[in-house]
Specification:
By secondary structure, the protein is of the alpha/beta class. The chain has five helices and nine strands. A hairpin with a 7-residue loop joins strand 5 and strand 6 (about 125-130). Bound molecules: zinc ion. This is Metalloendopeptidase.
Length: about 240
């Protein structure tokens, strides 16, 4: 992906930490889509506090974590195969198994709504993971949204992010500052990871074409350009779910 395209893709997908958290407390499956349309993305993989309160997916007696899914019929076969590749990628490195839903009560319902978004963690019953045909059909985005559904938040929302990222508040588009709020994440002894598929791009939510985040201590380090889950992303899934 070219850098430009990457930025574009990032822009289309992501959700702010708070917006996703808002979704995470909504009761129905129709999310408040107040943010996905124009921004960024890449994200994070830090466990949300809800994982301590029951939003994790259950573990089966065989040690696997089965997460049922449905995929809407409106995708082309190419789009569907990219989505399926993202779903199956978890089985290569974690104990999470996304499986086609039969009659399970709780499941993720993958569809092309507006923007790329997901609730954080298991909500109960059907929960939408939106992978918009316009801008969300990329391997990294599929993994990103699935990580949200498993209970992870954006990297730059991590409780320890101030040691690694300086938020340049003056460059953030007005009204979107909350996308950079910190969350009391459970970091599971894993390091802050600039290469996480959950790390926002440095121009995320910029209102003036200047960076909204600067890495610490080296301001020239690149970040937010992951094309797939990093080792730490995988490690976090395995630690959170005790794979
Ligand atoms: Zn996200």
């Amino acid at each position: 992906m070219s850098a430009l395209r990457c930025v574009f893709v990032l822009l289309l997908f992501t959700l702010s930490c708070r917006a996703e958290r808002r979704r995470s407390v909504r009761k129905d499956s129709e999310p408040l889509v107040i943010d996905d349309i124009a921004f960024d993305s890449e994200l994070d993989r830090n466990a949300d506090p809800c994982t301590s309160r029951g939003c994790m997916w259950g573990k089966s007696s065989d040690g696997k974590v089965y997460v049922p899914y449905t995929i809407a019929g409106h995708y082309t076969s190419r789009e569907r195969s990219i989505i399926e590749r993202g779903l199956s990628s978890f089985s290569e490195s974690t104990c999470v198994r996304f499986i086609a839903r039969t009659n399970q009560r709780d499941y993720i319902n993958i569809q092309s709504d507006s923007g790329c978004y997901s609730y954080v963690g298991r909500r109960g019953y059907s929960q939408t993971v939106s992978l918009d045909k316009q801008g969300c059909i990329y391997h990294s985005t599929v993994q990103h949204e699935l990580l949200h559904a498993l209970g992870f938040n954006h990297e730059q929302c991590r409780s320890d992010r101030d040691q690694y990222i300086k938020v340049l508040w003056q460059n953030i588009q007005r009204g979107w500052e909350y996308a950079f709020d910190k969350i009391n994440t459970l970091n599971q002894d894993t390091p802050y990871d600039y290469n996480s598929v959950m790390q926002y791009h440095k121009y995320a939510f910029s209102g003036n074409n200047r960076p909204t985040m600067e890495p610490i201590p080296n301001a020239n380090v690149n970040f937010g350009q992951a094309t797939e889950m990093s080792k730490n992303d995988i490690l976090r899934v395995n630690r959170l779910y005790k794979c």
